[in-house]
Amino acid sequence: MELAISTTRVPGPAETAGAQSPEGSALSHEEMIRIYRLMYLSRRVDDREILLKRQQKIFFQISAAGHEALQVSAALAMRPGYDWFFPYYRDRGLCLALGVTPTEMLLQAVGAATDPASGGRQMPTHWSSPPLHIVSTSSSTTTQLLHAVGCAEAGRYFSRHPEAAQKAEGDYRAFREVEFHGDEVVFTSLGEGSTSQGEFWEALNTASNRKLPVIFCVEDNGYAISVPVEVNTPGKHFEAGGELSQLSFCRGRWDRCRGVPARLQRSGGLLPQRPGTRVCAWARGSALLALAFRRRQAVPLDRRARGRRHARPSGEDADAPAARGHFA
Amino acid sequence: MRDPLAKMQMRLLREGILLEEQINALERELDHEAEQAAERALEAPLPTVESIPRHVYSEDIDPTSSLFATEHVAAPGSAGGGKMGGEKGSAPRTMADLINACLYDEMSRDPRIVVYGEDVADASREAALSEVKGKGGVFKLTAGLQTEFGSERVFNSPLAEANIVGRAVGYATRGMKPVVEIQFFDYIWPAVHQIRNELALMRWRSNGGYSSPAVMRVPIGGYLTGGAIYHSQSGESMFTHIPGLRVVFPSNALDANGLLRTAIRCDDPVLFLEHKRLYRETYGRAPYPGPDFAIPFGKAKIVRPGTDITLVTYGAIVPRALQAAQKAQQQGVEVEILDLRTLSPYDWEAIAASVRKTSRVIVAHEDMLSWGYGAEIAARIADELFEFLDAPVRRIGSMDTFVAYQPLLEDAILPQPESILKAVLDLKAY
């Protein structure tokens, strides 16, 4: 995939100019203190909300505790009001560092009319700030990733066709301000648990296929709400390619695919076809992607069904005892 | 300690960036800041109950307004300019032709429009365009658009409906106008999460800060003879139940052209339902009305005046109701047929005016009877027009099943002119 995982934008010379970096560190003392300020403030706003929640002065609370370092540093690598942001509900440190104030956050928590993100409609930490380019946050997980993809496509389109950004009378364009920059970047974030959602993969698919400037920031605290990572994801991380090798991908002739048990190769296995033919008749002549489960516990046959299969007399099956090891 | 706060504090101390008392002072300052912020927030004014409906829809453009009432201004067939301008324009055109013409004319006028979906491009590989006729949609509704406007504006999407609508939200929040296609209504369901929780909600949940006025064109409905379960579904009431979304369902070529133009030019997200059976019917063809012909939302059309019974309907039931009405006339019953044209918003004034006149009303649709679109209309008539009624409010809909493949079954499942006629005569005799 044309996709860089876990890389952040390197600040250009203009952005780092004036920052006095101490020997051996990329960050100046001022920057280090600024990061600590934002991290600490994020935690304190969380604490304040928890207190208000206990006093029943606010009605919901979502904490960013533990996420602050990643969030603040991510925000400081970006340009609020220039780049575009599709965060999720745990991104307090990110939004604080982008320029949302503690007062604005707490106005949303109390459901104030003057809550600039939603006017009292959304629960706390559901960000929205047109001046900062933080796009309204949902409580649904990973829907925002596809918005980020569309946003990047729109930015690219306007950069190539700036005339399209002109206002026009007589339709929606009269009310739609357009801003764009040729080097704008779209940032979107999600929790690790949300990588199980299909739309996560849909967004990666299109962003990489169209080579869009989108950063997907996966914040991994080890849990999806309460469910630990191993329930959601093979291995410890979704991006651990080695763990995904429990699936073997191959294209071409079924009987030459590595990882396909010999018994299946010879008998045609689950598919009614002879050795040496293409796996699917309807895919004849086209490239074919076949998946085979290599690990025994990944085989989607229960014991009873397996028994029936083995009980059925078959010349092909009978001479493939070694291959049965894949299923036993 | 895995807490990043503690780690960062240790690092500041270890590297001599801050002394302990400096950190303490900094933290006290920030504690105070958070406390002050909470106090300010607790004193802030609360929203008024009157503010609730604000930003469900655009506060700037009202698609029911006279801005889009060019229906009687543009003279069909005589329009100069546009895709079918000039002599060719006067011949009757199908709904498919006039939807295609509207897309063409609007794309010529508005460079912010992009069209994408499954198979909508003429050819993904541009080099082939000189050799092949091109696809342009499985029903050819987008034919020629890529050839005319290029692959940046008209392109194929992955086979993933949530992807199509989710990206449209992103495009539209930036001020573009995605006019996307879901290939069949039957396959819209993966996108419904995006439609309901994101697309239709963006403006209200951000209190007007953001909005995503995209247009989704979706072929819908049965009467295809063999369309079966997954190419015949209706289900519009699931979408009229979504605040923030406009739902349009034209029954003829001219309405489709004018309503699609309003859908594109307005500032709200629109689900534009196109009945597959009506795409190329002889019924409802019309001359090309020119590139600025628009019809406002929420304006029903009396497609047949009558005095005895009001029949409220839309979509493919309109021609079937007309057939039934002709037969009813032979038996002395005059049916007034109202084509709603848009389902959200809908024209309550027109319904009420007709019911006050006839005192008998049927609400008919192709979708399943139970929990269908007619239930809401019937309930409101019973509620608000009770004293004008001489008979109970009747509904016609399909059986509460999916649509079967075998034509014998399909015919029995979907409402037919005969079943509409029977309901009309029964109600007249009540």
Secondary structure layout:
The complex is a heterodimer of chains A (328) and B (430).
Chain A (H helix, E strand, L loop, with lengths): L12 H4 L12 H26 L13 H9 L7 E3 L5 H7 L3 H9 L32 H18 L25 E6 L6 H12 L4 E6 L3 E2 L2 E2 H4 L8 H4 L2 E5 L10 H6 L21 E5 L9 H9 L3 H4 L2 H4 L4
Helix pairs in contact in A: 2-3, 2-4, 2-5, 3-4, 6-7
Chain B lengths: L3 H11 L5 H24 L51 H15 L3 E5 L27 H5 L4 E3 L4 H13 L3 E5 L7 H11 L2 H4 L9 E6 L16 H4 L5 E3 L4 H13 L4 E6 L25 E4 L4 E5 L3 H14 L4 E5 L2 E3 L3 H11 L2 E8 L4 H12 L9 E5 L8 H7 L3 H13 L1
Parallel strand pairs in B: 1-2, 1-3, 3-4, 4-6, 5-6, 8-9, 8-11, 11-12
Antiparallel strand pairs in B: 5-10, 7-9
Helix pairs in contact in B: 3-9, 5-6, 10-14
Model description:
The complex is a heterodimer of chains A (328) and B (430). Chain A has 328 residues and is α/β, with parallel strands linked by helices. Chain A folds into two domains: 22-232, 3-Layer(aba) Sandwich (Rossmann fold), CATH 3.40.50.970; 245-324, no CATH class. Helix content of chain A is 35%, strand content 9%. Chain A has helices spanning 13-16, 29-54, 68-76, 92-98, 102-110, 143-160, 198-209, 229-232, 241-244, 262-267, 303-311, 315-318, 321-324, and strands spanning 84-86, 186-191, 214-219, 223-224, 227-228, 247-251, 289-293. Chain B has three domains: 4-43; 66-278, Rossmann fold (3-Layer(aba) Sandwich); 301-429, 3-Layer(aba) Sandwich (Rossmann fold). Chain B has 14 helices and twelve strands. Chain B has helices at residues 4-14, 20-43, 95-109, 145-149, 161-173, 189-199, 202-205, 237-240, 253-265, 317-330, 348-358, 373-384, 407-413, 417-429, and strands at residues 113-117, 154-156, 177-181, 215-220, 246-248, 270-275, 301-304, 309-313, 335-339, 342-344, 361-368, 394-398. In chain B, strands 2-1-3-4-6-5-10 form a seven-stranded mixed sheet, sandwiched between helices. Chain B has a five-stranded mixed sheet with strand order 7-9-8-11-12, with helices on both faces. In chain B, helix 4 links the parallel strand 1 (113-117) and strand 2 (154-156). The termini of chain B are far apart. Classes of the chains: A alpha/beta (328), B alpha/beta (430). Chains A and B meet through helix 2, helix 3, helix 5, helix 6 and helix 7 of A and helix 1, helix 2, helix 5, helix 6 and helix 7 of B.
